[in-house]
Amino acid sequence: MRKYFLAGTLLLVAPWTVAQQGMNNDAVIKMAKAGLSDQLVISSIQSQPGQYNTSIDGLIALKSAGIHDGIIAAMISKGSSAAAPTATAQQASTNVDDPNSPHEAGIWVYSIKSSGPKLVELEPSVYSQGKTGGVFASAMTYGIAKIKMKAVIRNARSNTRVNDPGAVFYFYFEQQAAGLSNASSPFGGTSTPNEYSLLHFDIKGDTRETVVGKMNAFGASSGTDDKAVVGYTYEKLRPGVYKVTPKAPLQAGEYGFISEGGGGAGPYSAGAANRVFDFGMNGTD
């Protein structure tokens, strides 16, 4: 219990009053130096109120204290979502790297580079669904073993590269014109991040692939392979705009967001074409 005197009167302040002030740069540094994992520190930043100094000097001080880029990205992201700007401020902002600025419909990745925060649009790639696996095993078991239908993307690496394992994503859904939420668009009429899966792709020679469906003699089922799914949470910032945060820092590899609804001909239609918002994670910048 802390004691304060005001005009000769003794005031008692409960200890939890100080705790309610929330997180800040010093608290993050203390947690990191105490040996807490990056994931735990990031979870605390995302779940607790706080105010962070993410100016150039603040970022340099955090880096000098040994704070990893994923944690710094979470601090910047938390600050940008907590400070909800007015409609006038949103209209006035023209900074393409500011998530609160107007952006074209699509999925954008927000990461921290050595030059500062960066917001980059994920350009969609076309994947084919004609490749199968497990045909021999299915034949040997008289159709009991399942045949896997795989989505295959040309080239072993995505053109969009990300160096920040703590990167987050922003979904901008177009509500009045063609875009993510328009049923006639290439994106299949999706309207929330909940209709997408974030997948880790396997590199096979000059291609990237992942399972999108299975079938055997008893039937077929569409859907991604649980082993390839990367968990994430999302929050609605304003109508048509969502922030998507992976549940853990992303490891080096190839990834992509795929609509579970899909706009193509289905996972078992030979030559069917769909789109994936792909990117590659290089690792720490």
Structural write-up:
This protein is of the alpha+beta class and 285 residues long. 20% of the residues lie in helices and 36% in strands. The chain is built from seven helices and 16 strands. It has helices spanning 16-19, 25-33, 38-47, 56-64, 69-82, 87-92, 135-140; strands at residues 2-6, 9-13, 106-113, 116-121, 124-133, 147-154, 161-162, 168-172, 196-204, 207-216, 219-222, 229-230, 232-238, 241-246, 253-259, 273-281. The strands form three sheets. A six-stranded antiparallel beta barrel has the order 5-6-10-9-15-16. A five-stranded antiparallel β-sheet has the order 4-3-8-14-13. The chain has a two-stranded antiparallel sheet with strand order 1-2. A hairpin with a 2-residue loop joins β13 (232-238) and β14 (241-246). The radius of gyration is 23 Å and the shape is globular. Residues 4-20, 87-92, 133-145, 216-222 and 262-273 have low confidence and may be disordered.
